[in-house]
Design a protein that fits this description.
Length: 477
């Protein structure tokens, strides 16, 4: 029998921290009451841990302490950081460790909004901690963004309290193992109760942490469906960049990104902007990689993941990592952020998969249910032609063969311009296949360099990406 790992309950964790005389700090909670600190009061021995607990619930009073935010918003990352820094400053000003040289200070804070009265908005929030992992040391921080999934405010408050205890306990006991720390955030909490869609580690406690890999852990462990980060590797809150925007997405394995990918993106985007009459600044461009395309031998190769992200980042693209195997789930995800228009660029070979009925056997409504979710209002597919490597036939929407059962449905989408061909593609790229490029890279062959965007080949060689190894020639003396 496999060993079942036991975890501590929030009450046990709170008590363990209370009994540790070397952990001492403050709590500041806005929006859902003092749900986290309540665990420490109830556990007993709280005087050893709690220097101060406050709930700046009234907005005017909160602003008088932490200052106003842009547009007078309260549930923002900037607000959370202000709260943490303000409270830590007070700790440093008012306390010292003369008589307690081993004591480590912390400040825990959250700013959240729970479900509204009509239950049309389930709520979300920011939760974080600044802490010393060693006495008198510099402070480190962990910031997370959560989205509530429960339908009752009281349940959301209870879950938030447990999450806060898990975060504080993890910060002091698991800072040297951030993967385990992330996993422990859900101790005694079901993943269907709360979603963590953004996480950020910073400071001397995390000298080797790559926040992109930490974001990947959230997707791998089912804590969220997708994470987004910019070309600088910074985690982006999906709502901040997607809300009421036009979204143009390109899905691929990007192993590596080729001239086909960039041509598909550039030409498809031109058509999308023309169709939507949108402005580039109002359009979010996403290069999406599904974890199903990250798996090599049954599990995700994290080094390979970073290689792909680094190459896309070099080209200045925003990257999304998702657990969506099907395209309709991608469309569903974006529509939760009230986007205006959605366009997706894909190759003909991918569209063939979209029209494969076996792809949707898990849905009670089958392919019709999937298409109802995928081809939503204002959604359009921009189709890049594909040259069959064996027959050399160029496939477009006009000669693509689909199953007889969905042929009329396919014609409907074509007639209503829900599927449109990218016509201004570069024919010189039609025989570039990423799998062949990858094979040449691994075998150290030549000729693949000019099939990639400018600068990518040099990066692959310099860093030894995708199996490339520099061959060192040793000349005979």
């Amino acid at each position: 029998m496999s060993e079942i790992k036991q975890f501590l309950t929030p009450k046990q964790k709170a008590l363990a921290i209370n009994l540790d005389h070397n952990i001492y700090g403050t709590f500041a909670e806005i929006g859902a009451g003092q749900e986290t600190v309540r665990h420490f009061f109830r556990a007993g021995g709280a005087s050893n841990t709690i220097a101060k607990a406050m709930s700046a619930y009234d907005k005017d009073y909160s602003n008088s302490i932490y200052g106003k935010e842009e547009k007078n918003r309260f549930v923002t990352q900037n607000r959370l950081k202000k709260m943490l820094k303000h409270e830590i400053k007070l700790i440093d000003e008012r306390l010292d460790n003369t008589e307690t040289p081993n004591r480590r200070f912390f400040s825990y804070a959250n700013t959240v909004t729970t479900i509204n009265y009509h239950k049309t908005f389930k709520g979300h929030g920011w939760v974080g901690i600044m802490f010393q992992h060693s006495p008198n040391g510099e402070y480190s921080e962990i910031l997370i963004h959560v989205r509530f999934r429960e339908n009752e405010a009281s349940l959301q408050q209870e879950t938030l309290g447990s999450l806060g205890v898990n975060l504080i306990y993890g910060a002091f006991n698991l800072y040297d193992n951030p993967r385990e720390l992330i996993k422990s955030l859900y101790d005694d909490i079901s993943v269907d109760k709360i979603e963590i869609d953004t996480i950020h580690f910073e400071g001397p406690a995390f000298p080797y942490v790559d926040n992109r890999l930490m974001s990947l852990q959230l997707v791998k462990k089912g804590m969220t469906d997708a994470v987004i980060f910019n070309s600088e590797g910074k985690n982006m809150l999906p709502a901040d960049i997607l809300y009421k925007k036009d979204v143009f997405a390109v899905r691929g394995s990007f192993r590596p990104v080729t001239l086909v990918n960039t041509d598909m993106f550039e030409q498809g985007l031109k058509m999308f902007l023309k169709d939507t009459e949108g402005k580039p600044e109002d359009t979010v461009i996403i290069f999406e990689i599904t974890t199903f395309n990250l798996r090599a031998t049954g599990k995700i190769d994290e080094r390979d993941f970073l290689d792909r992200v680094d190459v896309l980042a070099k080209l200045g693209y925003t990257v999304m990592i998702s657990n969506f195997a099907e395209y309709y789930r991608l469309a569903e995800y974006f529509t939760t952020y009230n986007i205006r228009y959605f366009g997706v660029a894909m190759g003909v070979n991918n569209l063939q998969m979209v029209f494969d009925e076996e792809y949707y056997e898990h849905l009670s409504g089958g392919i019709l249910e999937a298409f109802g979710k995928f081809f939503r209002k204002d959604m359009r597919v921009y189709l890049y032609p594909y040259k069959d490597p064996e027959t050399h036939e160029l496939l477009t929407s006009k000669n693509l063969k689909v199953n007889d059962n969905v042929k009329e449905l396919y014609k409907y989408f074509i007639a209503n311009r829900r599927i449109v061909d990218i016509v201004d593609y570069n024919p010189d790229f039609s025989e570039i296949y990423s799998r062949e490029v990858l094979a040449k890279i691994a075998k150290h062959e030549t000729g693949w360099e000019n099939q990639l965007p400018e600068g990518v080949a040099e990066m692959i060689k310099e860093r030894g990406l995708f199996g490339y190894k520099e061959t060192i020639q040793i000349e005979e003396l």
